[in-house]
Amino acid sequence: FLRLPESPRWLVMKGRAREALQVLKDVRYSDQEANDELFEIIDAAQLFDQNQHMEEEEVGWPTWCCGGISDDSKASSSHFVGLIRRVSAMFAHAPTRRALSLGCGLMALQQFSGINTVMYYAASIYEMSGFDEITSIWLSGYTALGQVIGLIFSILMVER
User: Under 8 Å CB-to-CB from 70, ≥6 apart: which residues?
Assistant: First the structure.
């Protein structure tokens, strides 16, 4: 579990389709399912390359750039318009919008819950609750262990 495989999409974008297929075979139930998904990824990567190439021709410089390459305000404006178009398309796509809302919502809840503060001061909190110093340190360690176990479980369950 300590070594996570590379993303199959990233491997395909780098021209390493065989490695992508092997990763997919490791995480999918059947070889047929892995092959089907690989073909979908390759099709999506080709479409992405075509769209990016068209945008680069339209703007005049690579779309992954954040500016500073050209002082031409028209090119900068066109890049900004392309960025706004892509962001609005992302929000228009319902599954993407739901995933983004869920991810941002969970992140906000985590920050509002103050779990980092609780974890940092766990030993002090246990001590203030009436446990002696040694016991509170051990309880703090068990709390951290629980967090690690939850993290391991989450890593194993990603994309299952």
Answer: 60, 61, 76
